Amino acid sequence: MLSFEGVALHRGGALILSGVTLRVAAGEVLVLMGRSGIGKTSLLHAAAGLLPVSAGRIAVRGRRAVVFQEPRLLPWRSALDNAALGLKALGVPRPARRERAASLLRELGLRDEDLLKRPHALSGGMRQRVAIARALAVEPAVLLLDEPFAALDAGLRAELQQRLREAVRRRHLATLLVTHDVVEAVRVGDRVALLAGRPAGLLPPLPLTRPAATDAAVFEACAGLLRRPGVAEALGLLAQARQPSPRGWD
Ligand SMILES: Nc1ncnc2c1ncn2[C@@H]1O[C@H](COP(=O)(O)OP(=O)(O)OP(=O)(O)O)[C@@H](O)[C@H]1O
After folding, report:
1. Of 89, 148, 150, 219, which residue is least crowded by CB atoms under 10 Å?
2. Which backbone phi and psi does 49 adopt, to 5 degrees?
């Protein structure tokens, strides 16, 4: 379980977030969205313990793990050793940690011949699978994901979103996912919370209904979310739509 109560945050001397109250239950994927620079990553970093809060309280029940947009792997270590890193820090013996890491890497779609490759020999998608495996390996109760698939192409993103969703459901993790991608929100999330205003606060979270796996159902769910009052504005989409393009006004 992860909860924020009346949280305020400063960055560079400026108050960027205030009065943020939110609870992410075990087994729930809460998607955090809002326009660029609003404070999504800062809030996630505060939940990860990487940034102090200026006011309020963040409570984490159980272990937490973080996945960043870049995989942040050790270049001189194999995929297997990278995925097992957190377990090493926890003092899990080598055979047990390699076994658990290998099983997670397979669950996330790595083939056996990839397990001993170093990061430079893996694709971007494989590297991010290793980063997710490394996070899941420590058996967290709370998973914090900061745009984990933003650098991947659309097909791969869809596959990894599906695998992530299955992995967090199976483990009953309280998951906070920061993303700019509305498709990702409806594919992975149970609820979406939007940051808006300055300093930013949280709009009341909206439930997401799980769409069928077809593209049409996913796009219909996205359109439904964007039609909800305040959502397009909070994502900065209406302001963008009024921007002139090189061809004139869109
Ligand atoms: N290291 C830092 N020092 C000072 N200010 C920072 C720092 N990092 C971020 N900020 C500021 O804090 C505010 C929130 O940034 P943050 O990265 O949390 O927003 P975001 O919503 O995650 O943005 P994006 O969607 O573009 O990633 C921004 O105004 C940003 O300029």
Report:
1. 89
2. 85, 15
